Amino acid sequence: MINKKKVLGYVMVGALGLNMLGATSTFAAEKESSSKTHSSTRVEASVSHDKTTVNIELKKLQTEAKKLNIKVDGKKAEVLKKEIEECQNLHKQAKKLGLEPDGKTPDTLKKEIEEYQNLHKQAKKLGLKVDGKTLSTLKIEIQQHLKL
Known about the structure:
The chain is mainly alpha-helical. Helices cover 79% and strands 0% of the residues. Helix 1 (4-67) runs parallel beside helix 2 and helix 2 packs parallel to helix 3 (106-125). The longest helix has 64 residues, at 4-67. It starts with a helix and ends with a helix. Residues 23-30 and 33-38 have low confidence and may be disordered.
């Protein structure tokens, strides 16, 4: 007859082997599940970081826009960027014309620049010198010339 002790030993080794194999696959599944959790946490952290970055950028743009007298309520970052750029161009243009842009809204600046340019053209047509003259000076000179 076959040695019962030997058979029992083989069965035990087989059972132990199967048990170890099951533990290994369970450990691998836990590790995979754990890495997915860490991965999603990293993605959530990245998204959270991106939102924070966007909020910080938006706040900076809002602050800059307020300094330029631009209304910021309900505007997105892209819109604010565009309006800030346009307003900065208006400021440069106003300074070149001798106008004081500080404390004025973009609409006010546009109107003043247009008015200055119109008065400038009108003064030139009347033969008046226009170089270095302010908006109010041009108005006065044009009025005086037209009264003559």
